[in-house]
Amino acid sequence: MILAAKELTLGYESEIIVPELNLFINAGEIVTFIGPNGSGKSTILKALARYLKAKSGVVYLNGQDIHRMPTKKVAQQLAILPQTPSAPSDLTVAELASRGRAPHLAWWQRSGPEDYKVIRWALEQTKTTHLADRLVGTLSGGERQRAWIAMALAQSPQILLLDEPTTYLDICHQLEVMELIKRLNRELKLTVVMVLHDINQAARYSHRLIVLKKGRIVAQGPPSEILTAQLLTDVFKVKAVIKSDAETGTPICLPYGIAE
Amino acid sequence: MSKPDVMVGTGSNFKYQRQWLVLVLTAILAVLAVTASIAIGPVRIGFLRVWEILMSDNAPVDISYQIVWNIRLPRTLVGCMVGAGLALSGALLQGVMRNPLADPHIIGVSAGAGLAAVAALTIFPQFPPSLIPAAAFGGALTSATLVYGLAWRAGVSPMRLILSGVAVSSLMSAGTSALLVLFSENVQAVMGWLVGGLAGRGWPHWAQVWPYVTVAGVITLFTGRQVNLLLLGDEMATGLGVKVEQVRLLLIALASVLAAAAVSVAGLIGFVGLVVPHIIRLLMGSDYRFLLPASALGGAALLTLADVAARMVMDPIELPVGILTASFGAPFFLYLLRRGHHH
Asked: Which of A179, B30, B107, B200 is the most buried (most CB within 10 A)?
């Protein structure tokens, strides 16, 4: 168990969005949250990233309360990629990636040869080496997402949290990003926790799905075991047939109507 | 300064060289501005003679020597501190708010300083003039604290900070206007202070301004990397191990002290805090490790040069330097903005 939430209650002001959530993430897993809008997916991800403080309950990173650890220590183990990160218009890809080294540097330290080695490695892993001197703002959507993942990799984390990494991308770039995440998981044993809107993509690329409705987990497990027509009706209020992909064996859902 | 990120890339990127170039040029400009400011006036003193008087232990104590040491040097140094303080403050706030239009006025510093100074000048006519800067400084910091406190709600978002700043500033300005109407016999002295300028500033003002600007300025120069991370957004900065709220409070506090010290001795000089960081950013990019020192030097240079112009253009009448910074700064700023759009 590399990351866990215990009796986590989340919300804003007086409104409770996620009541007493318990969950765990194993090292090396790809876990994806799915659920309708307002089900608390992004809220939970923000809490796991320690960006959102819980009303009560604890997030454990490698067994330690994440809010009691020095935040830089957390950043050395856990990287996050928000849904719409912003960058100054004159920032280059190499500079962006170099920002990922910040958690490893004390305030008086400069980046050293070791850091540059990691940055180069992160660019290679995300196939952005040839873009190193390009401005982040001038990249295509897919390239930009890879550049941000390069920055996250430069943190040399064990866990990567991604909030809807494929939103706003065309289908080819979506697959490119998902394939990259899959490869990083397999080759680097990177644990991945993400929020996805596309159920089929989630099913295809995740070891485990966590299905949310109104802040509660209604189902979790390997996609082929939990994705049923009944679940889709209960959670998303759609009628759908579930097929099995001939190539990969993962379930595919084909919605055909709205459930009353 | 870190080694070039360029080493990682393969192509040609001259950003790093350009950052250093701009930094060196602003430093040279600042030295030239200081020299010109000391040399130029009713009594002309040669540029070399200026440095001889400043550096040499056995320079003759003549009229030039008196003018340099007693009048022009303190005024010039005060100008440098004011310019550097305003520019650094503006650069910090633009970074913290992630808003290129932020400047020292936005956190209520100017309005607070104005109200305190005007209150001292009008309600308490026997208030010792030498304590006006201290009153203005106190008013500025009080106002900034009020803005920050009102914006606080389980954290401070840049948007709430801006709104809170606008509200507090309007309130303070209304108070200032009310005092001006009620005590119209003192308007002359008050207007002189409100318009802002360096006329008659000497060693006492220097003593009032340099400790704050130096201490806050030096700390500020070490915050570049943190600001760089904040520019990626609060959530990303948190992910990279920045204590966002604490860092933001520190940066706003530094910006407040820098601006408060500046307006307390020079009055409400506008535009420098907004335009200098902007010009520097257009010239060298937004890496705050370079932007901060270059803004400090650029602010010192710009205000000093503007003061030289303020003394010369309508000689023998001296214009308030704030009018100069606005009338030269605004067109130049617009020119850079239009040019900047093309790449």
From this structure: B107
> Using the beta-carbon criterion (under 8 Å), do B229 and A102 form an inter-chain contact?
yes
Domain boundaries along the sequence of chain B = 9-342
ipTM field:
0.91
Nearest in space to A94 (alpha carbons), one of A53, A129, A48: A129
Which residue among A49, A81, A132 places its CB closest to the CB of B8? Answer: A132
A206-228 in b/e form (b: 16+ CB < 10 A) is bebbbbbbebebebeeebeebbe
Backbone angles phi, psi at A34, to 5 degrees: -125, 160
Span B181-193, average pLDDT: 80
Question: Residue B343: what pLDDT?
Answer: 39
- The model's confidence at residue B340, banded by pLDDT at 50, 70 and 90, is low
Q: What is the CATH number of domain B9-342?
A: 1.10.3470.10
The number of CA neighbours under 13 Å toward the Cβ of A134 is: 14
A111 vs A96: CA distance, rounded Å: 13
pTM over 0.95: no
With beta carbons under 8 A apart, name residues in chain A contacting B287: 95
